[in-house]
Amino acid sequence: MSEMSDPFSFNAGAVESEYTGNIGQTFLELGEADEDILLVSPDLGAGPITGAFVKKFPDRFIDTGIAETNAMSVAAGLASYGFKVYVLQMGAFGAIKCAEQIRADLAATQMPVRILSAWSGLAMGFFGTTHHAIEDIAITRAIPGLTVVSPADDNAARALLQATMDLPGPVFIRLSDASVYPVYDSVPPFQAGRFMCVREGSDATIIGTGLGTQLATGASDLLRKKGIEVGVLDANWLKPLDEDAIINAARSTGAILTVEEHGVIGGLGSPSRCGYASPALPALRIDC
User: Are 2 and 10 in contact (CB under 8 A)?
Assistant: First the structure.
């Protein structure tokens, strides 16, 4: 985890970490390539994720003040006029506080708005439970018409920003806040709705998402030194979910563990258990 920054800085972007800051260049490049890209943010925006964009394109940045729900509705309105709108939100507020706006204003109308949900999971744990984001996967996956992605590291974030740029409808991009064990040496060639195999293994499979994939990969490498071959799948796409990958992993290794910064109910583990319980695997036992 990143070290605690000054929580009382006038610039909220000061709490951003080196990890999330590394995707700022990608976001700037997207803005340079498409003048219809706008950024909306509730009292954020000057940090490493979007600071370079704001500096270069100040006329394409709208600060709604500390009004997260309004930011979603403003983004929907701008998108209805043909703009490609990104909303930078704190993970603790982006999904749980704005669920109604995401459902009614973005998903039901299929507005092409991308939600950059920064500091997800326990990244802002130093602020206490008000700033934990451990329900957002459950909330966003439950909203019809909303795509949900969760990059494992900086290169994965760059890949998913590029891959989701022209998708129809809204996209929730769950950004973590740590670089403890980077997974990808370069920008990976993700396929929409498909997990990425980052470690092969025959004894068990760990499916991680976000920071969980980093931790799973590190664990796999340690276990490999002890002769235990544990495969790792990166759930970079959480919706649509790669159920085929879950079933194939269950068939090939017989044991699946999920790792994520999220509560047990509704997180990656829940749909993975559903896949594990597929009629295609009638003989496998499910341990919850």
Answer: no
Going by their DSSP bridges, the two strands 61-63 and 237-239 should be labelled as unpaired
Query: Do residues 63 and 41 touch, judged by C-beta distance below 8 A?
Result: yes
Report the largest interatomic distance among the alpha carbons of the chain, rounded to a whole angstrom: 59
Nearest to 16 by CA among 2, 30, 37, 35: 2
Would you tell me how many other CB atoms lie within 10 Å of the CB of residue 253? 17
Q: From CA 16, how far away is CA 194, in angstroms rounded? A: 29
Query: pLDDT averaged over the chain?
Result: 87
CA distance 31 to 42: 19
Among 56-65, 89-98, 130-139, 279-288, whose mean pLDDT is lowest? Answer: 279-288
Instruction: Identify the DSSP state of 15.
Output: G
What are the residues facing 85 on neighbouring strands? 38, 113
Residue written as tokens 């929580």?
7
Per the rule left: phi > 0, alpha: psi between -120 and 50, beta: everything else, 151 is beta
3-state helix, strand, coil in the chain (%, to 5): 35, 20, 45
Helix axes 243-253, 269-276, angle to 10 degrees: 60
Cβ pair 172, 198 in contact under 8 A: no
DSSP per-residue codes, 207-250: EE-THHHHHHHHHHHHHHTTT--EEEEE--EEES--HHHHHHHH
Q: Which residues contact 211 (CB under 8 A, 6 or more apart)?
A: 121, 152, 176, 177, 178, 180, 261
- Give 106's DSSP letter: I
93-111 tens-digit pLDDT: 889 999 999 999 999 999 9
Rg of the chain (C-alpha set): 19
